[in-house]
Design brief:
Number of strands: 8
Bound molecules: phosphoenolpyruvate
Length: 249
């Protein structure tokens, strides 16, 4: 059966000192539920995070990676490099990557392939813009994001996939999808995966909700049957807030 996951996306926050201090604070918190805890610090602190969190139940993920194995890609980081510092989970397709770095569905498909080829777990993010929701196109947009960047993978690869539905209008805005909106979309996503693959694949895939999840709203969102956890931005930068969310299951 699918697992609960709460993942913190630190984005471009926390230098080395701040990373050390937040990781110390996180290690002092207690996971009282059954959710796997993931943190995604910036690249340069992944080695430190991964080493420091060895033998704890906090997993370290990267926020992005390049699709090529190696080569003349100045400034980029490969799957193999991530794995060499003990990181085998990667976030792909975050809306900020799509919007500010022009990451297209095709590019994301190749990043997904690179992750799977290197035996990594991929947290695949997607979600509609506000105009899509206002015009009633949110389900069609989400279905096409899944189809174009993910539905080429083999059925067996789904054990390496975590889905993260993040309506763009709710990320970093303080505006959250209502628990009902999240549930409706998660149920739609599961139905779409079932139609493309199988009910079994759909039942087993973890689907996270992301978009202004806070200690105050996590419990209600996580109480929905198709919401299996959260991808948390702002509230993952304070250990107490983050663990209140982790313990909201
Ligand atoms: C995110 O960046 O994935 C996110 C959900 O951010 P926030 O929680 O700050 O809205």
């Amino acid at each position: 059966m699918r697992k609960h996951i709460v993942a913190g996306n630190w984005k471009m926050n926390n230098d080395l000192n701040a990373t050390k201090s937040l990781i110390t604070d996180l290690k002092n918190e207690k996971n009282e539920g059954d959710a796997e805890v993931i943190i995604a610090p910036t690249y340069i602190n992944l080695d430190y995070a991964s080493q420091t969190l060895t033998n704890t139940d906090i997993t370290v993920a990267a926020q992005n990676m390049h699709q090529a194995e190696s080569g003349a890609y100045t400034g980029e980081i490969s799957a193999e490099m991530l794995k060499s510092v003990g990181v085998s989970t990667v976030i792909i397709g975050h809306s900020e990557r799509r919007a500010y770095f022009n990451e297209s569905d095709d590019l994301l498909a190749s990043k997904v392939n690179a992750g799977l080829k290197n035996d990594m777990r991929v947290i695949f993010c997607f979600g509609e813009e506000l105009e899509d929701r206002k015009s009633g196109k949110h389900e069609a947009v989400v279905a096409s994001q899944l189809k174009n960047a993910l539905f080429h993978i083999e059925k067996v690869a789904w054990s390496h996939i975590v889905l993260a539905y993040e309506p763009v209008w709710a990320i970093g805005t303080g505006e959250t999808a209502s628990p009902e909106q999240a549930q409706d979309m998660h149920a739609f996503i599961r139905k779409t995966v079932a139609a493309q693959y199988s009910q079994d694949v759909a039942n087993n895939v973890t689907i996270l909700y992301g978009g202004s999840v806070k200690p105050a709203n996590a419990q209600e969102i996580f109480s929905k049957p198709d919401v299996d956890g959260g991808l948390i931005g702002g509230a993952s930068l304070k250990a107490k807030d983050f663990f209140e969310i982790v313990n909201a299951f």
